[in-house]
Design a protein that fits this description.
The chain is of the alpha+beta class. It is built from ten helices and 14 strands. Helix content is about 45%, strand content about 20%.
């Protein structure tokens, strides 16, 4: 179980499902709120329209008893309240109401003359009938004059939520309140209500649909995400299995499969194969290095042992000079192998500022026993690096030139195109163009070098190039002006202090 929930596939599926769930929850909430607000506004508009019609009737002088009010059975209720807070008109069939100015459902309820208090029934006589209307002579002149008085209406309706009971069934309503200042009647307020049953029904239906649809949608999203990620990660699993097999078999010649896509997985596979190729090359070079080192060490050791055994049995035949030469060769080979090991381990060169011309002048002055003279052309060129390693490069290049030169060797130091250049050339046979890269490999010696071998093990040029690379430079070979080989060490100049 932990394996599945800890996988990338499970995490991606869970993440996608959570994101979609949050998005659906937010969207569903927003839709429900918008739907509720929209339907509530529609009910409010209907209530406002009904209230406006009643206000228009009152403004035209219609008596309370003659108002054309919608019946409660039609889905809308109306309640008219005078400035004393009395209900003067209401829709027929209304049994109970809340959310308006008065809980009364008809004219006369709650008054002293209401039924039960010794008066007449509330619906039999509207309050505006039989009252003094200011027309003492009955000619209607004062009524006409009052009808022409302006009617003041409220600017904006007021909305409230309440309930009403019609024929024993209660429902929620949206009430709109409009007020008007009428002549002789004073302020009259009209409460008109429209039912919210459509809003409640629509919201309930939408909620039910979401409760059913959202889980199904989440299941679909989870399943699709699981399948898609499985398909997308299948090449990664193939790469993992192949890497596991390579690790178990230790066969670095194998490669991971590269999918036929152009995505990150394909680039990962190609990078992995490139890493395996570099690792294979490194291991193979290490094997060759160990084998060649063993071979090179075996020769001087065997020669030295033979001479010592002969000298032990026959002291007069001991070749002391040959034994010393073999010992020196063995010492030099051990030093070269140790330096290569340090370079392979990533040893960084020192940060000493030094003059290549002064270094070359000092090193050349200490050389003795060279077969050919060395010509010098040394100009100031300051670099940063390890004095010992750069001195080893110069010594290896001069030794190589001495073995192959016909009459002389030339060493020059200068600045070219913003770089320090140390060049060592000879007038020998030179290096064939097809061999100019191979000679920098370890333990590689050309046939001519093997025929004239005087102690070289094929490590000098390899060491020189590795040191050059560690110093941020290059070491190349080309033909010299004299027709031989010209080795050029190019290094960055030291920054001006």
């Amino acid at each position: 179980m932990r394996r599945y929930f800890g996988s990338v596939r499970a995490q991606a599926t869970l993440g996608a499902t959570l994101v979609v769930a949050v998005a659906l929850l937010a969207a569903g909430t927003g839709v429900l709120m918008a739907l509720r607000i929209n339907l509530t506004d529609q009910a409010g508009n209907q209530a406002e329209t009904t209230a406006s019609r009643v206000i228009s009737q009152l403004a035209s002088g219609t008596a309370y008893a003659d108002l054309d009010l919608p019946d409660a059975d039609e889905g809308r209720v109306v309640q008219v309240v005078d400035e004393a807070g009395r209900v003067v008109a209401a829709s027929q069939g209304l049994e109970r109401i809340s959310g308006t100015a008065s809980p009364e459902v008809g004219p006369g309820q709650g008054r002293s003359d209401a039924p039960g208090n010794g008066g007449t029934p509330g619906n039999t006589r509207p309050p505006d009938e039989g009252e003094n209307d200011g027309d003492d002579d009955g000619d209607g002149d004062d009524d006409a004059e009052h009808d022409r008085d302006p009617v003041e209406l409220s600017d904006e309706p007021a909305f409230s939520d309440g309930s009403a009971t019609v024929h024993g069934e209660s429902a929620e309503y949206r009430f709109a309140e409009l007020a008007a200042e009428l002549p002789q009647r004073g302020e009259v307020r009209v409460f008109a209500g429209a039912p919210l049953s459509a809003e409640r029904s629509a919201v309930g239906t939408a909620t039910t649909a979401m409760l059913i649809g959202f889980p199904l949608l989440l299941v679909v999203v989870s399943g699709v995400t699981w399948l898609v990620t499985r398909r997308a990660l299948r090449p990664v699993e193939d790469i993992r299995q192949e890497m596991e097999a390579i690790t178990a078999s230790e066969d670095l010649r194998r490669r991971v499969p590269v999918p036929g896509t152009h995505d990150e997985v394909a680039r990962l596979a190609r990078t992995t194969n490139a890493t395996l190729a570099a690792l294979e090359e490194s291991v193979e070079r290490q094997r060759r290095f160990v084998a060649d080192a063993s071979h090179e060490l075996r020769s001087p050791i065997a020669s030295l042992r033979t001479q010592l055994e002969v000298g032990s049995a026959h002291p007069e035949l001991l070749d002391v000079e040959g034994a010393v030469a073999d010992t020196v060769r063995l010492q030099q080979l051990a030093a070269d192998l140790l330096l290569l090991a340090r370079l392979d381990a990533g040893e960084r060169p020192g940060g000493t500022r030094l003059d290549l011309a002064a270094l070359a002048r000092e090193e050349l002055s200490q050389r003795v026993g060279d077969r050919h003279p060395v010509a010098e052309d040394l100009d100031h060129a300051e670099v940063v690096g390890s004095r010992g390693q750069l001195a080893r490069v110069l010594g290896n290049l001069v030794d190589n030139a001495q073995r192959h030169a016909a009459a002389g060797v030339r060493v020059s130091v200068g600045v070219r195109e913003g770089m320090a250049v140390l060049a060592v050339g000879d007038d020998g046979a030179g290096v064939p163009e097809e061999e100019r890269q191979r000679i920098f490999e370890r333990f590689v010696r050309l046939d001519d070098a093997r025929a004239r071998d005087d102690g070289g093990a094929g490590l000098g040029l390899a060491i020189a190039r590795d040191v050059a690379v560690r110093h941020g430079g290059t070491l190349t070979v080309r033909e010299s002006a004299e027709g031989g080989a010209l080795f050029e060490l190019v290094l960055p100049l030291a920054a001006a202090s």
